[in-house]
Amino acid sequence: GQNIDQPTEMTATEGAIVQINCTYQTSGFNGLFWYQQHAGEAPTFLSYNVLDGLEEKGRFSSFLSRSKGYSYLLLKELQMKDSASYLCAVLPNQAGTALIFGKGTTLSVSS
Amino acid sequence: DVKVTQSSRYLVKRTGEKVFLECVQDMDHENMFWYRQDPGLGLRLIYFSYDVKMKEKGDIPEGYSVSREKKERFSLILESASTNQTSMYLCASSLGTGGSPLHFGNGTRLTVT
Predict the structure, then answer these.
(1) Is the dihedral of CA A13, A103, A90, A42 positive or negative?
(2) B40: chain A residues, CB-CB within 8 Å
């Protein structure tokens, strides 16, 4: 079967660093996506990893280890506006299938 | 910027009604998707489409059908709405290549009473 696991909730304070983990077991692998979703809004794309290693984009970085079926999203210099749900999603095959999403991690940032 | 537009933000329907949820994208994307999102369950795929008149079942297609007569429009149909179909429905589109991200509409919150 297909399974994507991530923690349900996390809390952190402004200015801190937080790491949101995601583990996956899927029938195939053609990339992993991270999305951010603020309450009441649509998910928005953050990052895409298909090869092992770290991809950095400003305050956000995403890491992938295909052999371990593991990814994390790293958020630095946290701001209040980073309070949101973070969704990990896997593309099992290159063509013909859609993204499979984890249940999301709700991050609360306090001052 | 890609724009995915869902026809209604909020919708209230009665049990047994036929419900149409419309989605239009303006970036000539090949792929279109319908997901529902429920607390504690995350995003679950209902149906998707690679091309006009093509459709594929997702993980939870029961009670739903879809129509894609034009490339830019993907409709989700609830043949006979039931209370367990009360949910947030999200439409998305993407290019045909594997690494292309999904672009989501703002969602339709459907309540079936």
Answers:
(1) negative
(2) 103
